[in-house]
C-alpha cells in the first residue's frame, strides 16, 4: 500500500475542494491517505470572512500537519491558494519548519506534487506551484508535474503542465469538473511515481548523505 499525505491551506474552499477530490481518488486507488491542514497564523489575510468561517467549520476535524505526516508518506501533495503569486504564508511557514526532517534526508526520493487556486486566469497559479518546487528541490524529493500529454489536461478548463490550477473569480467553492478531473489525474500520477520509486529504487553506495557530525551543527536531535 502506498502512503500519501495531502497538505493544504484554503481560504474560500476552492483548494479544499481539490483536496477532497484528491483524497477520494487516492482512496479509490487503494492508498492510505492523510489529509492535513497547515496551522493558522496569528493574523491571516482574509477577504471573504463568511467563506473562511464556513471552511473553518468544515475542516474543524482535519488534523494539523506535522513532520511525521511527511516522513510517513511515500507521496506528498501540497495545495495552496495564490498569495501575490506565491504560496499562502501558512504553507510557507509549514515548509520553513521542515528542516529537521529535510536536512537529514528523510524527505529524499518521495514523490511530491503541488496544485493551486487563484482568483483569475493569470493570478499566479503556476508561479505558486513553481515556488513550491523550489522547496521540494531542497528536500531532495522527486517532483511530479502534470505534464502535457494526458487527455484530461486538454479539456477547456485545464492545460497547465506544472500542476492543477483553478480559477475562482473570488467565488467560494467554485471548482469546475475539468479541474476535478485534473486533480484526480495528478493524484494518480503522483501515486504511480511513488510506487515506482518504492519498488524500483535501489541503494546507491556511492551516494553519501550528510554525516551525523554535520547534522549536530544544526542542532538536530538524531
TrEMBL record:
This is NAD(P)H-dependent oxidoreductase. Residues 4-188 form the Flavodoxin-like domain. InterPro entries: Flavodoxin/NO_synth, Flavoprotein-like_sf, FMN_Rdtase-like_dom. It comes from the Bacteria.
Amino acid at each position: 500500500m502506498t502512503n500519501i499525505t495531502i497538505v493544504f491551506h484554503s481560504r474560500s474552499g476552492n483548494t479544499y475542494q481539490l483536496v477532497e477530490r484528491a483524497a477520494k481518488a487516492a482512496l479509490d486507488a487503494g492508498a492510505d491517505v492523510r489529509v492535513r491542514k497547515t496551522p493558522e497564523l496569528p493574523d491571516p489575510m482574509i477577504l471573504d470572512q463568511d467563506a473562511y468561517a464556513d471552511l473553518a467549520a468544515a475542516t474543524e476535524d482535519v488534523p494539523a500537519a506535522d513532520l511525521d505526516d511527511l516522513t510517513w508518506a511515500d507521496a506528498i501533495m501540497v495545495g495552496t491558494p495564490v498569495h501575490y503569486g506565491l504560496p499562502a504564508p501558512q504553507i510557507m511557514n509549514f515548509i520553513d519548519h521542515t528542516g529537521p526532517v529535510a536536512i537529514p534526508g528523510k524527505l529524499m526520493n518521495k514523490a511530491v506534487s503541488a496544485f493551486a487556486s487563484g482568483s483569475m486566469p493569470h493570478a499566479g497559479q503556476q508561479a505558486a506551484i513553481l515556488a513550491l518546487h523550489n522547496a521540494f528541490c531542497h528536500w531532495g524529493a522527486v517532483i511530479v508535474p502534470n505534464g502535457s500529454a494526458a487527455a484530461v489536461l486538454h479539456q477547456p478548463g485545464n492545460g497547465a503542465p506544472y500542476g492543477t490550477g483553478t480559477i475562482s473569480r473570488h467565488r467560494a467553492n467554485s471548482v469546475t469538473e475539468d479541474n476535478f478531473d485534473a486533480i484526480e489525474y495528478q493524484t494518480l500520477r503522483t501515486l504511480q511515481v511513488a510506487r515506482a520509486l518504492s519498488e524500483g529504487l535501489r541503494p546507491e553506495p556511492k551516494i553519501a548523505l550528510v554525516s551525523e557530525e554535520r547534522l549536530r551543527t544544526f542542532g538536530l536531535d538524531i
